């Protein structure tokens, strides 16, 4: 391979010198052997610096948890007490082992989370469009090598350092490197001095910077850690580790529980000593209480639940970039959705065509360039069936304009063995709307590749959301060669005698404003008021059918415009016609909108399309109801102040002809009304709105790199239904977290009450050792809690209103439930201890501690089953809908019994082998807690029906 010059001098070379130095053909790209050789030398285009915490720091962090620190303290005190009387400190050893085990489990979980986050980041990595072996292809940015020819477009994030070979109105924001947020105009054909600062190298683009507007072509000069971004080890290599609001609340809860348990320990010891109790016994009681009060397994269960939630969302095509999004999704009240590709299929098909004298309906499906034109005169009857496009000069010029003024590529994929669908052989690289125009032209054998040779594009005025227009200037080439296609000769013969032509497409209203002439057959005439009126009627007719409508015009030029002339040249154009493009609705979108409505979520459609087009599609999706909902246009938004927009925001179902800048105002208006907003976006200018929204959602397929970086979530399939599915998952995750918190803390409160009572009820000893309590908290509590974390969504989860994201974790009766069930559980256990300890049966009296321990463990199994639902009885639930819980209950029960009947375990845990009657007593008392929780559900139902007006009950389906 040619030795490459150092990258510091690329900006000092001309484009020709760069091409020679990199040994690349800009019209063909690299060959496969060159790609392999260069990747072997430079590696993958990835930043390989330190990402996140080291393995050692992750492991050390596991032992800074306040609950584990308290357990370590308990272990030390327990060891001192055992050694004081000459006993082996097995409780201390067991606690230390469990602390270490908990640390290892936490380390494994967090390490996997780090790896999963890195994997998700790779999934979100941008694709780039390159020229290789003469073909345009999309590849992962990591696959780029030095010398690759890369197409640069508005909205993309530059994936490697490169020298520009071509630039058209190209502006790049380089804040990631220079700190300057203002865009920099790039010029390919300039050369700069060797000492030029990084921010002034306007013929270069750099990895991590954002293309704001325009387009261009570059050759890669540096990849990975050799880039300017690699030098400062910034931006993409940093793993985002963000503590969620829930995790913060749980950390606060852990501190509160530890503090409360220490206060309770001090109180029990103080009261016991005041009553002349034995200090050592009181200290043993306190140690057991301290261990019982703290749910050691809770942090791990929450971490696993959030991780499982994000994994389930990925399976449903929702990629979560920021963990808080998992929680916030459950509280979304408004979804602001783009139309194209999200509510529709984004498979555009041009179906209608209007010129001054002709109208055509075109059939065909997908991007396959096969279809028939049914042509009629606008002022007459249907023409003869053998009439084709070549007999309609106006249409030919319009189709030519649609292929020349176009940045997409229509390609035929090579056939595969399993490819049965002929239509799938064609694909679009680029914007689907532009792809539909190439397909339309291809149906008449007008091919983009031919236009590239005979109508060479020499300048461009790119599309922007403000202009809503795109113009391309083509230089007409000689048609004298014998191999010139007849189609190109025909198009050239229809055009005036000029060396250059500007072809323009965009918003029909704006194009028409700039036209003072119109194409009539082969002639150009002044446009009349009646012709303008007819065009507007045609535009409205297509829009009311739910089509996206584009207007086309052109302008003969006697010279190539200068840079200053380009800014004012789109005037006095010649009108060519309209094209109506249909984007079929997603079948699942209407269902998802209905589901959202039942869930208390309002759907708003935001689009840049015509008001009537947007209204028609929104009506078909049941987003818009003419009697109740408003439609606002971007022009109307411009005339409103913030207060006026806030007033009408909630009643507006459709925003049409909206620029991305308006999206930010719409989000802010909705938030001022107290809405929790999810906003979709795919463009560069969508980034502010995505950041402002409570949930910013970027499109995974059509979204720009900038929009993805600004988002909280990425739709891998660009589908509105995926937003609703992710919302359901968010609600389910939060419901499951509340479910196992209810289970774990309710049980722990009961344990604390039972243990705290023993010094004052004359039992003579604490029924449970710290080791036995740890067993309950980590095994009989932890295993079923993990199973509750994967409880499937309840049938009505999307029929409930969204929850308040600021609510306390104990809101909606959860705190009262924990306290209530804890008291019931504690009193039940005290009653059991009284019966066993004071029994006339010597065996029961002797084994009262083991009876208490076993009953507490088995009772929690029933409690776990009951916690599956707040409203449905246990017998009403499908036992195999959560097989993990069923298996965990059976498995944990067997483990508990093994502590009684396996000699080595019995000796280690200090238990006794229970008789059949004693075991029956344990299971009998265990059932009491289940009977209580199930009875509460029945009472709640009865009370709810009593409070519901009879008229409502009578009218319920």
Automatic annotation (TrEMBL):
Subcellular location: Cell membrane
Domain Cation-transporting P-type ATPase N-terminal: 9-83
Pfam families, sorted: Cation_ATPase (PF13246), Cation_ATPase_C (PF00689), Cation_ATPase_N (PF00690), E1-E2_ATPase (PF00122)
Xref: InterPro entries: ATPase_P-typ_cation-transptr_C, ATPase_P-typ_cation-transptr_N, ATPase_P-typ_cyto_dom_N, ATPase_P-typ_P_site, ATPase_P-typ_TM_dom_sf, ATPase_P-typ_transduc_dom_A_sf, ATPase_P-type_domA, Cation_transp_ATPase_P-type
Gene3D superfamilies: Calcium-transporting ATPase, cytoplasmic domain N, Calcium-transporting ATPase, cytoplasmic transduction domain A, Calcium-transporting ATPase, transmembrane domain, HAD superfamily/HAD-like
Segments passing through the bilayer: 63-80, 92-108, 256-274, 286-308, 817-837, 884-902, 914-933
SUPFAM superfamilies xrefs: Calcium ATPase, transduction domain A, Calcium ATPase, transmembrane domain M, HAD-like, Metal cation-transporting ATPase, ATP-binding domain N
UniProt membrane topology term: Multi-pass membrane protein
Domain of life: Bacteria
PROSITE patterns noted in UniProt: ATPASE_E1_E2 (PS00154)
Keywords carried by this UniProt record: ATP-binding, Cell membrane, Membrane, Nucleotide-binding, Translocase, Transmembrane, Transmembrane helix
Assigned protein family: Belongs to the cation transport ATPase (P-type) (TC 3.A.3) family. Type IIA subfamily.
Entry-linked NCBIfam families: ATPase_P-type
Protein name stated in the entry: Cation-translocating P-type ATPase
